[in-house]
Design brief:
The protein has about 110 residues and is an alpha+beta fold. The chain contains five helices and three strands; from the N terminus they run αβββαααα. The model has no long low-confidence stretch (mean pLDDT about 85).
Length: about 110
């Protein structure tokens, strides 16, 4: 069973699952303060995985503020965090731009 299917059946909008510590091998190279924790959050339209530094997860006030900010941004962005939507809009390469940068383009 996929994580999303499990948490989708257990969480209501605005709820989160328990915190987990990432076991990615790359994190063995980092100090404990930079370890990554994560939880699954029902953001209303889908289940999202929220990754955050352990030092944020271990401070209940900071963690709750972070969760509140994420949920607020998703709500304001109609299901997608506003900052990520804006970054996506700025990063999209349009057809005309793509043609200018393509090594196969005849118009430069």
């Amino acid at each position: 069973m996929r994580d999303v299917a499990l948490w989708g059946s257990l969480l209501q909008p605005g709820q989160r699952g328990p915190l987990w510590r990432s076991s990615a091998r790359i994190l063995d190279s980092y100090p404990d303060s930079l370890k990554i924790c994560f939880c699954y959050v029902h953001v209303g339209t889908e289940i999202a995985r929220l990754d955050l530094p352990a030092w944020v997860a271990e401070d209940s006030t900071l963690f709750e503020q972070t969760l509140s900010l994420v949920l607020s941004q998703v709500h304001k962005g109609y299901g997608y965090p506003v900052a990520l939507a804006e970054a996506h809009n700025q990063a999209v390469v349009r057809g005309g731009d793509r043609a200018r940068f393509s090594p196969y383009s005849k118009t430069k």
